[in-house]
What does this fold into?
Amino acid sequence: MTYAIGVDGGGTRVRAVIVDDQGRELGRGEASGAVVTVDDPDRAADAVRAAVHDAAEHCGFELPADCMWAGLAGAGSAAARDAVTEALDDGTLSHRLLVGTDVGAAFHDAFGSGPGVLLIAGTGSIAWARGASGDIRKIGGWGHLLGDEGSGYFIGSQAMRCLTWSEDGRAAPTAMTDPLLEFCGVGSVEDLITWREAASKAQVAAVAPLVVEAANGGDSAARETLAAAVQSLVAHVEASLEATGPWSGSAPLVLWGGLLDAEGPLHSRLGTALGHLDVRLEHRDLDPAMGAAMLALSRLEDSAPKRQ
It folds into this structure.
């Protein structure tokens, strides 16, 4: 019997699952996360090792496995993949190692080898799509400096701009002012400059729930901020359909991430805004680590000797 490991790694946590050659789960593990960087790939590699060893301990599995597919945040470029692969590929976790992105693992869990569109919006945002041709197209995912439209980071950044516009008199007063200043631990809008310069992407994105609360209370600036986020996400889906079409019927669409899951604040808003598109919302509780494990098994099957 052969065994495979699937890893789903992000900035918050890394999850690992060990499966047998029938895809049956043997054990799971978890560790604190780290995003892959070219300059310091060892941090992400160490997080993966910790999660895999945790999974192995839980089920009494003796490493190494036959194959591991690691879907890691930050591994979108060839340079980043090469760096973390070199840091991980010492044979202690698996005999064969493949590295991709966490989005790739989630997409495989959502659609396998079939067609569909996966839209993700949490701290960041991205869409992946596969049409009838089988080619996968990525829309967005350019990071917070160039993209992440519709994400928690986008919402938090836009909300802070609303505060500065209101302070200047370029916009009406907003109910977001006091809650955001309190959240950031500053006494004035002017002090937001210093806070923003030192804040991480995740800290800025954490402002989003306050914007949602203000919007639900009727604040026009908060409502306009969420509407802009929704329209940006609709544009991701529109571009995905255009890039992978034509579609013979309604394209299956899966929403994922803290802003878009069934309880997410943008779920119903986005569902309404997608009404003009020929898509079919499919509600799935994604398990990217298992998606990664299935990708690992598929690589083992591809490399297995063929019977005559």
In short: The chain has a mean pLDDT of 92. The two ends are 21 Å apart (CA to CA). Residues 191 and 197 are 10 Å apart (CA to CA). The beta strands are 3-9, 13-20, 25-32, 67-72, 97-100, 116-121, 125-130, 136-140, 251-256, 279-281.
